[in-house]
Amino acid sequence: MGPITVRDVDESNLEDVFRVCSHGKLDDPLQQKGIELRRSWLRRMLRDNGSCAKIAYLDGAPVAQLLFYTEGSAPFIPRPRRGVVLLRCVYNPFKEAQGKGASTALLRSLVEECRGDPQYLKGVRCRFIASEAFNTGEGTPMEKFYASNGFVKKNGEMVLLINGEYAPPVKLEPHPNESDKGQAIVIYNPTCEYSYPSAMRARDLLNSIYPELTVKLIDQWEDPADSVRLGNHWLTVKGAQIISGWYERESMLREVAKAVEKGVQR
Ligand SMILES: CC(C)(COP(=O)(O)OP(=O)(O)OC[C@H]1O[C@@H](n2cnc3c(N)ncnc32)[C@H](O)[C@@H]1OP(=O)(O)O)[C@@H](O)C(=O)NCCC(=O)NCCS
């Protein structure tokens, strides 16, 4: 096995993020739109906060990536927890490169950095790293990977203490307004190039079933107030949060049907 190296993402290796995360999808026009959004977001984060992503290279080829930012840098989190680093995802899509320590090396690099004084913490000591471990059904689930690297589950997030004590996240209540109650709203974010394409697919699916339903898309980083009003929840239909995720198609559509029906009767 060749050597594994870890590099912070900067302008010189920024495209490697997409070579990992969009591996096999680089020619898809919808994915390209997601990539474009993420490229701009990465550049803005690098400029304003410093590092926010890392790439692992195996024999010089990019094979895994890790994305993170402080809770304080996310505009859609009211009353952010000080000194908390949000680990957003880790991903190694290459079967032949899995199980060789690439993602472990990425995680170790972040943990080591958080024990020190990285630029993105802006002089604040890191209390803990918190991650929302979603499961796409691909590879090893993130929750299992984090658990085997010392993270423990608290309040639905996976947590690794660094220099402080755990504090739960602020729970947001949705406050849909009158116009929210007449339409469906899909929230996407520019931090993952799959998010915008998924939001578009959700919109197309809803439009095909409910041609009369207006479906609006919101960029969580560009329109944080709208996102907060909807509890930062990915899909709200006629004021009702759809709890099932995009990958739980059947139960999601059942919830949507209920929300549309209820909204019509109101
Ligand atoms: C979880 C995931 C990131 C792991 O990636 P990986 O590069 O294969 O991870 P590693 O090789 O570092 O570790 C995997 C296993 O190999 C072991 N391993 C093998 N050789 C190793 C070495 N030299 N050094 C460290 N660990 C090694 C690790 O201990 C680990 O075992 P564990 O699962 O029992 O803890 C990958 O499976 C993945 O991408 N899963 C999907 C996650 C996802 O959905 N991401 C979001 C996509 S948008």
Q: How would you describe this structure in keywords?
A:
binds coenzyme A; globular; alpha+beta; 266 residues; 7-stranded mixed β-sheet; Aminopeptidase
Report on the structure:
It is a single chain. It contains 7 helices and 11 strands. The radius of gyration is 19 Å and the shape is globular. It has 2 domains: 4-161, Aminopeptidase (3-Layer(aba) Sandwich), CATH 3.40.630; 180-265, Glutaredoxin, CATH 3.40.30.10. The strands form 2 sheets. Strands 1-2-3-4-5-7-6 form a 7-stranded mixed beta sheet, with helices on both faces. It has a 4-stranded mixed beta sheet with strand order 9-8-10-11. Helix content is 33%, strand content 21%. With 266 residues, it is α+β, with helices and mostly antiparallel strands. Residues 64, 89-92, 98-104, 136, 138-140, 142, 145, 148, 194 line the site of coenzyme A.
